[in-house]
Write a structure and sequence with these properties.
four-stranded antiparallel beta sheet; mainly beta
Length: about 120
């Protein structure tokens, strides 16, 4: 049995959905040790918007939360920061952290997924 630590980050351009996937590995279980999500407005006020952030084990949602931005330039939603967990997934499944959609013009999303894989 081996343990492989990993961190995956996606910080795309404005008005682009942030999503990060730890691909399935044969005979492995991905264990999430933490994750973060940020949602900010640019220098020009966006349209007020609410999006969700979800953690998925394969096709199964195992956590979800919401983030909102007002129609204010430079606004920032309260970041989602979850650490110090050991949330195991299902063997031979991917693990994904993603926003539900792009936030719209003048918004920027970012996600980070941290964990380790147990390979049998």
């Amino acid at each position: 049995m081996s343990y492989i630590e990993w961190t995956s980050v996606h910080a795309p351009a404005a008005n682009t959905k942030a999503t990060v996937t730890k691909a399935a590995v044969s005979n492995a279980i991905h264990v999430v040790s933490g994750f973060t999500a940020t949602f900010v407005a640019g220098a020009v006020a966006p349209t007020a918007v609410t999006v969700t952030v979800s953690l998925l084990d394969g096709a199964t949602t195992i956590w979800t939360g919401g983030m909102s931005l007002p129609a204010t330039a430079g606004a920032s939603a309260e970041p989602i920061i979850v650490t110090g967990i050991d949330l195991p997934g299902t063997i031979n499944q991917n693990m994904k952290l993603e926003f539900s959609a792009a936030g719209g013009a003048n918004t920027v999303e970012a996600v980070t997924l941290m964990g380790y894989s147990i390979v049998t």
